[in-house]
Amino acid sequence: MINYLVVLNVLLKSFGVIVPLLIGVAYLTLLERKVMGSMQQRRGPNVVGFFGLLQPFADGLKLLIKETVLPSSSNIGIFILAPILTFLLALMTWAVIPIGDNQVFVDLNIGVLYVLSISSLGVYGIITAGWSSNSKYAFLGALRSAAQMISYEVSMGLIIISVLVCAGSLNLSEIVYSQYKVWYIYPLFPLFIMFFISGLAETNRAPFDLPEAEAELVSGYNTEYAAMGFALFFLGEYANMILMCSTVTILFLGGWLAPLSFLNFIPGSLWFGIKTTALLFGFIWVRAAYPRYRYDQLMRIGWKIFLPFSLGWVILIVGLLIGFDCLP
Question: What is the pTM of this model?
Answer without folding.
Answer: 0.91
